[in-house]
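Suppose you are handed a protein chain with no further information: no name, no annotation, nothing but its sequence. What can you learn? This example shows the usual starting point.
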Amino acid sequence: MPEILAAPRTIELSVAAPAYNEAETIADAINEWRNYLRRHPAVGRWEIVVCDDGSTDATGAILAGLQQDCPELVVVRFPRNRGAGAAIAAAIAATRLDWVVLLDSDGQFPIDNLDRFIDRILAGDGPAFTGVRVRKADGLAYRWGSSLSGAVSNLLLGTRYRDFNSVFKVVHGPLFRSLPLESTGMNCSTEITARVAELGHTWIQLPIRHRPRGGGRRGWRFLRGARDRGLFVGYLAVRHWLLRQGVLRPLTVPEARGTPTPPASSEAAAPGSAEPAGRVR
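A reasonable first move is to predict its three-dimensional structure. Written in structure tokens, the prediction is:
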């Protein structure tokens, strides 16, 4: 009889997160993530990768201190602020494990939301999962802008995602690291949703809790953010039209063969002259 392989009982998980002037929240966030990952019976190897996006407060010093007690914490540093999108892309690029969860460092997304995601991953349900905020804790203006841009993005792509712009995502590592992300600001979560959908994958949507922002400050103002979001959705529309006309080649990502396993002493090299510090052990 052919041997029947048992389904894996644990997953290898990287947390990827941007941080900009998050001195008020970064220690609490990382301690919450670390405690969850250490104790969860279905999490095997794990790491936390944070990109310090040129913070001017004590964020960098706090991260350096946290690394002393947490060798699984990897810090990628930008010498100057480059925007949330660039920091997210750098953090994702510096991950090395089989699955990547995207979080923010302001404490709005509790990591225990992962419980139901891990069950679905172990069941082999798909390569891309996204969190749907049941009750968004942002202000009215931000909620309205997110809903509008999400509706337009769904219309363009022919999808029906309930929270198109949600940051909380869990994606198979080789797929996530292969996405060519271009946005610099908070539109990166919108771009990730669109890129994966353009590849023909269907996002599996799961409800998540969303908390009020714990502290720190946004690296962008509302009016500028609204303008950038509108421009970016317009860019998605033009790109989608060019793809349909055959002017652009469809995005292709080579199929991953197995799970990359880094040596303990390797260091992540993030794009754009970032400086990585630390590595998963």
